[in-house]
Structure formats: structure tokens, C-alpha cells
Design a protein that fits this description.
Length: 172
């Protein structure tokens, strides 16, 4: 249980940490996405974008200090974003999800699959949280690299899936 708990925690810390940093560096792709997909003006979209970055950063802190709260908050944020992406996908609006800043990849079913996987990771962490603790340092060290790669890699799953698709052509 400690391994699953550590993997879930480190994966989500990596995911939300990288996501928050990438968005904070340049909010404009997320603001543009929000203006295009929600009935918001520029100021409201910018406020929501900044709130998203703050929520992701808060989840990172909570996963270390109050893991149950961090996993629960992860579930709430991921559920909300998954519902939003499903709405965008069904509306036919062609836009990037801006999950990690600027991206050429359009919102697609791969985003919903990715978020379903992340929801499962967050749910597993929440279920394990009352029964686990930070565990021996060795477990955290063993799990850290694969979990961090998994978490950060999930942000770019859409680009990776395009890269490995038979239709991929390298742009000049």
C-alpha cells in the first residue's frame, strides 16, 4: 500500500507542479482557451486562469502536508476539468487544452482518457491515504523517478500520441 500511495502522491505532485509552473510562465494560452470555450470576458478568463494555477500549486502543497485533502482536491479539479474538456470536445470547438501552456494538439478523446487515468490515480491515493504514511525513504526513492515521469508525461500524452501515430509528419 505504501508503494501505491507514494506513486500516486508523487505522480500528482509532478503533474500539478509542472502544470502550474508551465501555466504561470505564460497564462495567455489558458486565457485564450477559456475565452473561446466559456462565456467569459478577458478579465474573468484571466482570473480563472490564475485561480487554476493557484489551485494546482495548493494541491502540490496539500499532497505533502495533508494528503487526504490533496487527493480529494485533485479529484475535484480533475473532475471539473474533465467535464469541461468533454463539453469542449462535443461542441466541436477546435482548441488546445492549454493543460501545460501552449500546445498545437487539439482537445481530443486522448485528453479524456488521460484524465480518467489521473482520476484513478487520485482515487487510489485517497483510498490508500488513511492506511499509508510517507513510508520508508527507500520506497519513496524507488518510486520517485517513475512516478515523476508518469505524472509529467501525462501532461504531454496528447503530443506523445500524435508523435507515435502513423500519420505523424515532422514539421519543418
Amino acid at each position: 500500500m505504501d508503494i501505491l500511495f507514494a506513486f500516486s502522491k508523487i505522480s500528482l505532485v509532478s503533474l500539478f507542479g509542472v502544470s502550474a509552473v508551465m501555466k504561470a510562465r505564460d497564462l495567455s494560452p489558458l486565457v485564450a482557451h477559456l475565452v473561446l470555450t466559456l462565456p467569459l470576458g478577458g478579465r474573468a478568463a484571466r482570473t480563472l486562469a490564475m485561480s487554476t494555477v493557484a489551485a494546482e500549486a495548493a494541491i502540490v502543497v496539500a499532497l505533502f502536508t495533508a494528503p487526504r485533502l490533496g487527493f480529494a482536491a485533485s479529484l475535484v479539479l480533475l473532475t471539473g476539468f474533465t467535464v469541461h474538456l468533454a463539453r469542449v470536445l462535443t461542441s466541436g470547438t477546435a482548441t488546445s487544452c492549454a493543460c501545460a501552456g501552449s500546445s498545437d494538439a487539439q482537445v481530443s478523446a486522448i485528453h479524456l482518457i488521460r484524465n480518467a487515468i489521473l482520476l484513478a490515480v487520485a482515487a487510489a491515493g485517497l483510498l490508500m491515504a488513511p492506511h499509508s504514511h510517507s513510508g520508508p525513504v527507500a520506497i519513496n526513492l524507488i518510486v520517485a523517478a517513475p512516478a515523476a515521469l508518469f505524472g509529467a508525461g501525462m501532461l504531454w500524452l496528447d503530443e506523445m500520441s500524435q508523435f507515435f501515430s502513423p500519420q505523424y509528419t515532422r514539421s519543418s
